Amino acid sequence: MTKFFNRFSFYLATILLASCASEEADNQIDLGTEIQTQKFSLPSGNDVLYNTLIGWGYKPDQIEDLGEFYLVAGDIIFDKSKIYSDPTLSRIDGNIVTKEIVNVWIHPGMNSSWISASNDALKRWNNELEKISLQTVSNRQIADIEILYDSLETDPTFDRLPLPDSAFGYARFPTVDGSPGIKIWVNPRFDVCNGPIRQSQRIANVQHELGHNLGFHHTNDFSGFQVEGTPEFDGESVMRSGNACFLDDFSSGDILGIKIIYGADTAGNLLTKYDVPRSTGIPNGFRKYSNVHVIGINGPNLNNVFNSVLNWWGNSNNPNGLHQFTLETNNGTPRSYTNIVDFASYQLHQANPEITINASSGFSNLSGNYWINIDGDNLVLVEKSGTHALYFSNSSEAPSN
Ligand SMILES: [Zn+2]
């Protein structure tokens, strides 16, 4: 059930043209080059577009008047002759991916930085996707998506290759049969970011291109269809164009768009799915997990958690035997080690084991009342309203639906 719509006939021409294009390049400076000959010094600050930009939350000092255009936040162009209404954050292609398991082949001829960035980007997507999942394969013949350097492409039928030096990546969109876009070409020569390319930029740009493979258009362009329910503006979106040097990770608005398009239809079934509340206590044991997958909507972003431990040795004489429930982060945010026990009350020994995490943990949206259960070798905390679950495992792949 895809929820997208198009409210403004004004955009129709753009949308129809854009949906014919099955690919796009991502340049750091793409739109900017068009306006270099268009500099005028017209008065600013008193027209509809300017007021609209202010209404979206831009500050006056972020809006530069270039005559026929405004240059906003350094890299977004608004044409004064056009009407910009309600630029909802997420924009989706007419085709979305219905293939539930998407095989991704990462070209082994890329260097370890790019291979690692590709794997990390896939992991970020899998942390949010529910209806589909991305899995890496070593057999190119069964790949649905290939990630490779532009210079490693041997099929001459692909145009616009090699990429210009100003383009970080280039991707294909999904096809009408529900398959993802088949390629991501990255440009290892990209070098316009004021200093050497950082690994975080490689990851975020592969993440961005994967968004195109799965049907997401640029949030700051007007191709594709608006995703109903996403915020009106989000400068932090990983799907912004012309922003390759500054992309970071999904914004909360990106995640909302992903949940609307690729989320589970109903979150309530998480209670049933994970069989909570559990009829007995949690068995004693030391449990260690390399991954935590956040399932459902409105859950915390735990992408920076790489190690978790539940160290539980309780009995009727010692009902408070949760010695450790730690989340370890790779960036020290909100801290390197957080012992959830310090921010929670719990009952794990008897039937209906549960844990209530308060708002002081420092992880936004982590606070809540959770049922807790063991699922095979894995640990799951299901928010009692059923909106989301935290699934601790030693697999980089999210649990299947
Ligand atoms: Zn793009």
Task: Write a short abstract of this structure.
The protein is an alpha+beta fold and 401 residues long. 16% of the residues lie in helices and 27% in strands.
Write up this protein.
By secondary structure, the protein is of the alpha+beta class. It has two domains: 21-262, 3-Layer(aba) Sandwich (Collagenase (Catalytic Domain)); 272-393, no CATH class. It has helices spanning 12-20, 48-55, 112-128, 199-213, 252-262, 269-273, and strands at 4-5, 23-27, 63-65, 69-72, 76-79, 91-92, 101-106, 133-136, 145-149, 167-172, 183-186, 216-217, 225-227, 285-289, 291-296, 305-312, 322-329, 337-339, 344-347, 354-357, 368-375, 378-383, 388-393. Helix 3 (112-128) crosses helix 4. The chain is globular. Bound molecules: zinc ion. Zinc ion binds next to strand 2 and helix 4. Zinc ion (ZN) binds at residues 24, 26, 208, 212, 218, 241.
The percent range for strand residues is: 25-35%
Number of helices: 6
Distance between the termini: 16 Å
- Identify every distinct bound molecule in the structure, by name, code or SMILES: zinc ion
Based on DSSP secondary structure assignment, what is the total number of beta strands?
Answer: 23
Stated plainly, the CATH topology of the largest domain is called: Collagenase (Catalytic Domain)
Provide the succession of SSEs.
EHEHEEEEEHEEEEHEEHHEEEEEEEEEE
Mean pLDDT: 82
CATH superfamily of the largest domain: Collagenase (Catalytic Domain)
